[in-house]
Write a structure and sequence with these properties.
It is built from 27 helices and no strands. The chain is an all-alpha fold and 456 residues long. The N terminus is likely disordered.
Length: 456
């Protein structure tokens, strides 16, 4: 499972590209090659999903005309999905007018996903009036909800909580209550307690069991207002909301150096699970405040093994973000849980590779045999980022799983393609044993290239 996760990560993360390399043009070339074989894929489901992806990628590569030519070649029942994908690609690139024209070729009831993307794109460009108008006109309830929620979230991030409240009023009742809670928390973080209480009251009218007071307590704790956080904590009735708020309050107490108060706050929780979660927050907060020496033993003493492991891993990542690679390694060495060890050692190995410590990175990746195939691809990716393709291929060659090794080798060639040399991708695809695999390699490479350079 870890190997599959690593392979998926390998093909999703886009590497930086040189300014001179036109990744989008290269992607179009690869997709053209893929289209020569994709219609001949034997499995109908695989053929359809592949064509749908190619159609979308063509649009994201700027070839909307080519994408529209291929859209009718998928199964008739899947054509609305193809058109939606094209329109979504246009909307994501900021071409909302073009996306709207594209949708004209399918029935209005089939346009929901793309209309949501158009509404969100309009809002992101600053035209909230047009975005709201588009969102409110979407027939599909689910797509309309997606658009309204994202628009309200954009308004919250911009500090326009009053506008977000108005947007939320067009949502379905449960979604509206949840958005009111987010708005109340944002108002509380901004110090507008009166508005937060009014919004919280509105949320409770929509859903009497909403955890609004816990959310406000958590928000005030996050900005260091422990007195107000404790006041609202006393009003939190929902057990989960109360546990989250307690964790936030305890973490804030730990950050200001009052570990005794944080410990007492955690002890007030009734369940072992909630106490473990709150202790995790305190241990990480201590590490973030620079007191790793106190955070590590606190993490190791958490009774729940998985929570203890996750806490140690988070502390190691805090150290890594602070540039303490050696300290992060020391903390990661305490991990016995394979999954948490992989999640900690992977970023450490990448940091070592990026710092020019290739031998150390390999040692970190291969130190635990059961994690070897999960971590080597990450080291390889870091080497490819620095254009050390020879070193990257050598690392890829050490991966034991043939599937993971092939995925890693393809990623090296994608890194080269992002700098203008796509021949390695073509050669890799040509070496695949089946038509399906050849097409898949080309499509995966094109997708990675477009993630590195998504805009027209």
């Amino acid at each position: 499972m870890l190997r599959m996760f690593a392979l998926a990560l390998l093909l999703v993360v886009a590497l930086p590209h040189a300014a001179a390399a036109d990744s989008r043009a290269t992607a179009r070339s690869l997709l053209t090659r893929a289209l020569a074989d994709a219609p001949s894929i034997g499995n109908q489901v695989l053929r359809t999903t592949t064509l749908l992806q190619i159609v979308e990628l063509l649009a994201r590569a700027g070839d909307v005309e080519g994408a529209m030519k291929w859209a009718p070649k998928v199964r008739e029942r899947d054509r609305p999905a193809a058109v939606n994908r094209i329109a979504i690609a246009q909307a994501d690139a900021g071409d909302t007018e073009g996306a709207t024209r594209t949708l004209g070729s399918i029935p209005s009831g089939e346009r929901g996903p793309a209309l949501a993307a158009i509404a969100i794109a309009q809002a992101r460009k600053g035209d909230l009036t047009a975005g709201l108008q588009t969102a409110k006109g979407i027939e599909d309830v689910m797509s309309r909800g997606v658009a309204l929620r994202e628009i309200a979230s954009l308004q919250i991030r911009a500090g326009a909580t009053a506008s977000a409240l108005e947007t939320a009023r067009f949502m379905q009742p449960l979604a509206r209550s949840a958005m009111f809670q987010e708005i109340a928390a944002a108002q509380a973080r901004a110090g507008d307690i009166k508005a937060a209480e009014e919004t919280a009251t509105a949320a409770l009218q929509e859903a009497p069991g909403a955890d609004v007071w816990g959310a406000i307590a958590e928000a005030r704790a996050q900005v260091g207002d422990l007195a107000a956080a404790l006041q609202y904590l006393a009003r939190a009735a929902d057990p989960q909301a109360r546990a989250r708020a307690v964790a936030a309050v305890a973490a804030a107490q730990a950050k200001v150096g009052d570990l005794a108060a944080a410990t007492a706050t955690v002890a007030a929780l009734a369940s072992d699970r909630d106490r473990a979660g709150a202790t995790e927050a305190v241990a990480v907060a201590l590490a973030e405040a620079g007191n790793v020496a106190a955070g590590v033993p606190l993490a190791e003493n958490i009774a729940a093994p998985r929570v203890a492991a996750a806490t140690l891993r988070r502390i190691a990542l805090v150290q890594l973000r602070g540039g303490d690679i050696a300290g992060a390694l020391d903390t990661a060495a305490r991990l016995r849980d394979p999954r948490e060890a992989a999640l900690a050692r992977g970023p450490i190995a990448v940091a070592q590779a990026k710092a020019g410590q290739a031998a150390a990175a390999l040692a970190t990746a291969t130190g635990l045999p059961q994690l070897r195939d999960s971590l080597l691809p990450e080291v390889m990716t870091a080497l490819a980022e620095s254009e050390d393709y020879v070193g990257a291929r050598q690392v890829a060659g050490q991966i034991g799983s043939p599937v993971d090794r092939d995925g890693a080798l393809l990623r090296v060639e994608i890194a080269r393609a992002q700098r203008g040399d796509a021949q390695g991708v073509l050669d890799f695809a040509a070496s695949r044993p089946s038509l399906d695999a050849r097409v898949r390699a080309l499509v995966d490479a094109a997708a990675a290239l477009l993630r590195s350079n998504p805009r027209p």
